[in-house]
Amino acid sequence: NITVQFGLVDLNRLKTLKPSESTTVVAWGPAFLKDMAGNFMNQSTRFVDSFINDTTLPLLEQWTLNLTSRDLVLYFSEAVPASSIDTTQMTLMSQARPSAVTCSECGYPPACPLCFFIGIDRVPLSVSSNASQVDFSTVRIAISDLDFNSIAKTRLLAVNASMTSIAVGEGAASDYSGNPLIEADSRSAILCTNYTGDVLPPQATQFDLDLDRRVLAITFDEPVDEKAFNPYFLALSSSALANTTQFHFSNSSTVADSLVTVLQIQIGEEDFNEIMRLDSLAVSNVTTRLTFASDLITDRANNSVVPISAQNALLASSFYPDKQPPQLLNFMLTIDASRMIFTFSETVKASTLDGNGIAFSSSTPLQLTSGSANEADGTILSMNISEFDLNRIKANTEIPEQSNSTAISFLSSFVQDMSGNNVVGRSKLMGAYVPDTIAPQLRSASLNMDAETLLLSFTETVNTTSLNVSKIFVQDSVDGRGIRYRLSGGEFASEYNASVLVRLTTSDLNEIKRLGGLATSTATSFISIEQHAILDMVQLGSIAANVSATYTADTTAPQLTSFS
């Protein structure tokens, strides 16, 4: 009897033929064997007389991982066909579970509460990773994008060889005789023999801008490290031309979520309002392009992203305009400056602001007659109030001129945002009030000797009931050094207005006429008032003033009223 011991290479080659008792034939040539006399055995063949099939279970002896070429190579103890590989029975782990720790749940599902508790990251491979034969006992698995992204997304896994192990189930592979692989569960996971990290930089493949949700989503060809995100290196541009409108993000924009290869950036309020203010930027996908520097972000292997220059700016794949209506957050009334200041929830278009859409709340709403924005587009706009409207506001005692008491209502047509959305029409309490601190001044006077009246016009609404007629003088010159007569009384209406009509007394009229040279023409008709002759609506007294009066002569003939 002669026993031939197969070498490992020959044995593995033989196993790939899947021999059996009925199919196994041995053939030999003339030089195969000779007897003791030197006679060679005749060339022949013979069916096997006894056949014992392979019953030895294959063993995964070692494996390597290359994240740059995205493959892992399995080295078995014997020939294993690539077709027998079931990648769903393989799980990469950051380390083997301690043998002292038992976990009934820790097989090959994607999540294990105990593994999570003790800090072990794990990624089960999916069916999408494909196996191919390298040699009889070596199989290469091309890691699919899905599995690579899952690995790259896991922080503690596949960082180096010492933090990379593989657990395999008995169904992960079988030899050519159908013998299943010796299981290496999570407690006996096999450490990576040779590890090559990812050295390829991530690249942005597309981006989408949703101004309605205020989200910028950038898709990369692999997972990125959201903790390395630096918004200062991110910019939007309206085109790839040199004179393009460009906007650089600030730290008000942050990462909202990182969905495997998609980085979702929540656009901060400051950045959103500035984007909207630039009316040639982000109007459509054509005017929405993305640029960034390599410092924007890295992948999990700390490879900086491939930068995108302004000349090669990435065009938005999808663009959703802002459809949210702006809201009036606050308004302030400044009486002295005759101005209203509005604060909105977002940038609004200044040219659309219309004061006609505002009404102050009272039993009869006081609607403004005019008003336009003083500034360019922004979140804060001011509007000058006309003198006519301001006096109406002051004259309306139902409008409390103080913060949190004064309310306005406004129409949706009051103003629009940069996307053409009308403001939400409603009522709003005043947030701040700057009171009237300027005393009323006499602006003009009109003396009508025929109608026996004196019309006084002030710079603002005054309380006519506070008028002290005895502080009014009729004089023949502006400085009052000539003839000067103090009125003794008069009748006037009790109302709130910027003008007061005083009906002069007969005694005052007669005395003015008797003096001669006083109030005989425009040249001799001047009105002077002393300080505090009248009060405005916040009890500020008028200042002393001298004005030239328009004059209407007495044309009524005298009548005899009595004689004795």
Helix run count: 6
Largest sheet: 9 strands, mixed
CA radius of gyration = 48 Å
Model regions low in confidence, pLDDT < 50 over at least 5 residues: 104-111, 113-118
Form type: rod-shaped
In helices, the fraction of residues equals under 10%
What would the average pLDDT be, to the nearest integer? 90
- How many beta-strand elements? 39
% residues in beta strands: 25-35%
The structure class reads mainly beta
End-to-end C-alpha gap: 179 Å
Give a short synopsis of this structure.
The chain is mainly β and 564 residues long. Helices cover 9% and strands 32% of the residues.
Molecular structure report:
The chain has six helices and 39 strands. Residues 104-111 and 113-118 have low confidence and may be disordered. The strands form nine sheets. Strands 31, 32, 33, 34, 35, 36, 37, 38 and 39 form a nine-stranded mixed beta sheet that branches. It is rod-shaped and about 190 Å long.
